[in-house]
Amino acid sequence: MTAKEQKRQEKKDFVYADKAQTDILLEVPSDNNPYIAKSACLHGYDVLELMAKKSFVETLLLLFTGELPAPEKVQLLEQLMIGLINPGPRHPAVKAAMVAGVSKANVEHLLPVGLSVLGGKSNGAKEVEQAMVFLQENKDKSAQEIIGGLLKTSARGAVQGEFHLFPGFGNSYGAIDEFSVSLAAQLFNGSESTSGFIALGQAINNELKAYDMGWLKTGIAATVFCELGVSSRQGCGLFQLLCAPGILAHGVEQTHKPITAIPMLSDEQHTYTPEIDLNKVKADE
Description:
GO molecular function, one term: acyltransferase activity, acyl groups converted into alkyl on transfer
Protein name: Citrate synthase
Strand content: 5-15%
Oligomer: single chain
Strand order of the largest sheet: 1-2-3
Order of helices and strands: HEEEHHHHHHHEEHHEHHH
Low-confidence stretches: none
Distance between the termini: 54 Å
Helix content: 40-55%
Largest sheet: 3 strands, antiparallel
Number of helices: 13
Organism: Thalassomonas viridans
Structural class: mainly alpha
């Protein structure tokens, strides 16, 4: 078969499905109207029974993993949900929703505005995804192995303010993020495992203390999601879901205030600093 004939055959084999398919939810059609569902099963479990017998956190993990979780996993995610419920008004995602709110944007747009910003690579959902991939790729290495090589090639001295040695771990405003460290300490309190993602994350945090770095919220979330068996793509969206309540609350709060409630920067306060090319810095060294 020639290349031209092969391409022609590939086009013939390219056929769209008759309907969208999913393994997550089964809707049982009504006897009277096939377009109406009389019951629904989530990964094989009747939704009404889940409502009666299971918690929201248990059902959430079932949705993403396909299995009902063990009690310790439920507690771990529930604690993380509380810790991440509000990123705080200094987080760009929350600030974006606040500005949209005080500007009298439609209330249904406030959360999407904040979540779009939360999807970023710096302290956002994309960093959680990258941190999960990083932890999964390095799970068989020691913290010393992971950090040693990265410290030698990093450009910490050339970066002012916030520096992430790798996704999920670094410093905040030039110092250890104390709240994140406290959050991790309470979240992982009692974890006696010497292996697994939690143990690796704790070891990395301990090694980074000497360099004024450690846990970031994105790294904590990534560690928990890896421990729960959530995929990196799911973790990216799940992080946004967990942070959404705070973003919405702050955004709606500002809708009751005048536009003057948010500072307006003067022209003199706007500065442009070209982004540092870390590859060039490394080459110069």
